[in-house]
Amino acid sequence: MFDPISAHIFAAKGGAMSWSAGLGVTPRRDSDPIAAKGVGGPAMHSWCIGGQTQAFALLCALILSACACSSRSTPEDVSAQDAVDSSLGDQRSLGDAVDVDVHLGQWTFGGPFREEARSLFETADGDLVMAGYTESWGQGDWDGLVVRSSACGQVKWAKAYGAKLKDALNGGGALASGGLAVVGVTHSFERYVEAWVMKLDDAGEVQWSKAYGGGGHDLAVAVTETLSGDLIVLGETYNFGPGTPDNHNLSVMRVRGSDGALLWDRVYGGGDAGDAGFALLRTGGPEQRFVIAGATESFGAGRDDVWLIQHRADGVMDWSRVIGDVQDDESRAIYPDSNGGYLISGFTRTWTQGKSDGFVLRVDQDGQPSWLRSYGSAERERFYGAYPVGAGWLALGHSQTFGDGEVDGLVALLDTTGAVVSSWLLGGNRDDEILASTRSADGTIWFAGWNSSKSGSDRDLWFGHVPVAVGEPCGTHALSEGKLKRAEALPPSLSVSPVITSGFEIQDAPVSTESLAFSTSELCSAADC
Fold first, then answer.
1. Which of 156, 192, 243, 434 lies at 20 to 30 Å from 396 by C-alpha?
2. Residues 44-64: pLDDT tens digits?
3. What digits encode the pLDDT tens for the residues 127-157?
4. What is the DSSP letter of 135?
5. CA nearest 477: which of 30, 98, 25, 34?
6. How far is CA 517 from CA 25, 86, 474, 514, in A?
7. For residue range 157-189, what is the model confidence (pLDDT) as tens digits?
8. Whole-angstrom distance, CA of residue 99 vs CA of residue 379
9. What phi and psi values does residue 25 have, to the nearest 5 degrees?
10. Helix (H, G, I), strand (E, B) or coil at 75
C-alpha cells in the first residue's frame, strides 16, 4: 500500500491549513476519450497541452489577456461564491457556468537531479507553498524541499532541510498565527524511519524540528492546526497497534505548536493487514473536529477500502466509515462539498475499465455516501483532488492511458450527476504527474507535482493553475456521445471500532538548512504579472 520513503502522500485543505512542467503547445493526435464507466453521458470536449512551439506564447497571451494574476476575479455575473450550486437537479451547461478563471500558468523549478512536490497550500497573503523533496541540494541522498512562490510563479525562496540520509516532506499548511508547518519522514536520526514535523517562520527558518517514532517505521503525511495553535499530525506506524511490525496502522498525534511536545497520540487499525491515512481536513466551527481520509485492509468488503474517520481535537473519535467493494478502493484527498458534506477523490480497482480508475465520492457530514463515480480507460487513472466549480465539480490527477508520455496530468470537469463535460491533459512527451492540489481563497485551483518533459531527463518540481473554461487551449475536439461512459456505484458503508493504542517517543531532529541557488522556467503566466 505504501513505501515510507518513495510514496506520494497528500494532505487536504481545510480551515487555516491546507492538505496534503515544461510545456509549449503543439496539437497532437487526440487519444481515445477518457471514459466515465457505466451509462452513456453527454458529449465531451478534449484537449491537450504538450510539446513546444513558437505558437505557445501567443496561445498563452490569448488565454491570459483578460486575466490579471495579481488580482484574479470572476465575471460580475458569476462570482466565486455564486458559482457553487448545491442543487443536484441543476443540469445547466458547465460551459456557461464555469467561465471563471480561464487563465493558465505553469512553471517548473529544479536543479540537475530530481525535485518533486508532494503537497501544495496557500498562505494568508495569497502565496503558494510546495513541500516535497530534492536530490539536487542538501546534506543527504534526499532532503526535504519547501518552495514559496507568488501567484504569478515568482519564487520568493526555496530551501532544503535535512541531515545525512533520506529526508522528505509529504504535507504542510499555513498557520493562523503566521509561519508554516510541514511534515514528512526522516531516516537521518535513528536506525529506523521516523515521522518528521517542522515549524517554520514565513521566511522558511526553522523554529523547531522533531522526530517521532518507536524503533520501527513511522511517518507523517498531513497536518492541520487547532484553534489554540497546536498541530494535528496524520501518519502511519509500524511500531504501535495490532499486527505490528508486519503491518502498519493509521496514527494521529497532537503536538504543541510552540515546541512540538507530544500531547496525545492515537493508533487505529485491525491487525490483519495495512491501514493508512492520506488526507486531513479541519471542519469549520468551534467544535475543533477534523476528518481523515485513508484506506483500510482490516475492515470492509475488499482488499483496500476507503476509510473515513471524524476525530476531535481532544483525541476522541466521533465516527468511522468504511466504503468499498471487492477490490482496492483508496482515497487520496478530501475537500468540503457545497452541500455541507465532503468530496473524496482517489482511485478504484473495483469500478474500473482498466487497471485502475479515478473516482469522486460524495458523502454527507456524517460520512454516509450519496454517490460514487469512476473515470478512466485502459490503463491507470487516479484523482488527487475534487472541488465544487459552477454547477458541478472539477477533479484532477494523472493518467497513463492518454497523452504522449507514460503519465500526464489529467483534469476532468463534471456536471451535477458526475458525468464528464470536458477533460484535458497537461504534459509533454515524457512523464508528468500531478500529485497535489489546492483551491485558493479567490477560487483558483492549483496543482503541483513533477515534470520531466521540460528538462528532457529527470524530474523538476511542477506547479500551476488549472484551466477551468471549456474550449480554451490546443484545439477542442468534440467526442461522440456513445464513447462517454460513467460508473454509478453506491458501495456499502460500514461502521468500525478500531483498536486504539499509543506510545510514540519524541526527539529533537536538528537539520541543516540550505537556501537554494535555483533555476525556474516560466511555461506560461498571466499577462499582467
1. 156
2. 222 222 333 333 332 233 233
3. 999 999 999 998 878 999 999 999 988 999 9
4. S
5. 30
6. 29, 47, 34, 9
7. 999 999 888 999 999 999 998 999 999 999 987
8. 31
9. -130, 120
10. coil
* Nearest Cα residue to 239 out of 229, 231, 247: 247
What is the C-alpha separation between 232 and 195, in angstroms, rounded?
Answer: 13
331-343 b/e (C-beta count within 10 Å ≥ 16 → b) = bbbbbbbbbebbb
User: What is the grid cell recorded at 526?
Assistant: 498571466
The residue to which cell 507535482 is assigned: 449
Each residue's pLDDT tens digit, 405-417: 678 888 888 888 8
3-state secondary structure of 439: strand
Burial of 186 (0-12, 13-18, 19+ CB in 10 A): buried
CA distance 491 to 371: 8
Q: Which three cell numbers stand for residue 241?
A: 497497534
* Grid coordinates of 343: 468530496
b/e map of 65-80 (b: 16 or more CB within 10 Å)?
A: eebebeebebeeeeeb
Q: Rounded to whole angstroms, how far apart are CA atoms 291 and 311?
A: 6
Asked whether the beta carbons of 177 and 229 are under 8 A apart, the reply is yes
DSSP 467: P
d(CA 383, CA 374): 10
Q: Which amino acid is at 46?
A: S
Strand, coil or helix: 368? coil
Contact assessment for residue 491 and residue 329, using Cβ atoms and an 8 Å cutoff: yes
Q: What letter does residue 60 receive in the DSSP assignment?
A: H
Q: Are 435 and 7 in contact (CB under 8 A)?
A: no
Query: What residue type is assigned to position 368 of the chain?
Result: Q
Residue 66 is which amino acid? A
Q: How far apart, in whole angstroms, are the C-alpha atoms of residue 186 and residue 164?
A: 10
Confidence class for position 328, pLDDT limits 50, 70, 90: confident
Q: How far is CA 237 from the centre of its chain?
A: 21
Nearest CA-CA partner of 226 in 318, 289, 291, 182:
289
Q: Are 471 and 45 in contact (CB under 8 A)?
A: yes
Q: What H or E segment, with its residue span, contains residue 63? A: helix 55-64
Torsion of CA 486, 489, 10, 60, to 10 degrees: 20
Q: How far apart are CA 309 and CA 294, in angstroms?
A: 9
Residue bearing cell 494532505? 11
d(CA 437, CA 520): 20
User: What does the block give as the cell for 499?
Assistant: 483498536
Contact between residue 360 and residue 392 where contact means Cβ atoms under 8 Å apart: no
Are the C-beta atoms of residues 336 and 510 closer than 8 Å to each other?
no
82 Cβ partners below 8 Å, 6+ apart?
A: none
